[in-house]
Design a protein that fits this description.
Blueprint lengths: L18 H9 L7 H22 L5 E7 L1 E3 L2 E3 L1 H11 L3 E12 L10 E10 L1
Helix pairs in contact: 2-3
């Protein structure tokens, strides 16, 4: 499986069924960048990965994702919550989301005005 959601990659325009992601993409307020496409492609890629893992796990098997939430000017992307939502939709049970660390947004043009989480999303088939 090839993942192509890095900056500079051409968007494939794939979408995933996530209300949280839809709301997040609506909040990205920089029409001059490819940020919404990159974010959407990242979650489409992660959805593929999660489906592959789900297919390979036995019932009761656990899958942990260590992720950092992201920030863009004007919005925070709650990667942990969106991945948990996607996992539920494909049949995982969200066992817990552990906050491993809290850091400040450190992106050009963003004053360190909001924290973002680094989390461990624990899913069970």
């Amino acid at each position: 499986m090839s993942l192509r959601s890095h900056i500079g990659a051409e968007s494939r325009g794939k979408t995933v069924d996530s209300e949280l992601l839809r709301q997040t993409l609506e909040n990205i307020n920089d029409p001059l960048t490819k940020s919404p496409e990159i974010v959407g492609d990242y979650f489409a890629d992660m959805n593929q990965v999660m489906k592959k893992v789900h297919g390979g796990l036995k019932k009761g098997g656990k899958f942990a994702l260590v992720v950092g939430n992201a920030c863009l000017p004007g919005t925070t992307i709650d990667v942990d919550l969106i991945l948990a939502e996607l996992g539920q939709k494909m049949g995982f049970e969200v066992k817990e989301i552990l906050v491993a660390n809290v850091r400040w947004c450190d992106v050009h043009g963003i004053n360190k005005d909001r924290p973002v989480r680094e989390s461990i999303v624990v899913l069970e088939k």
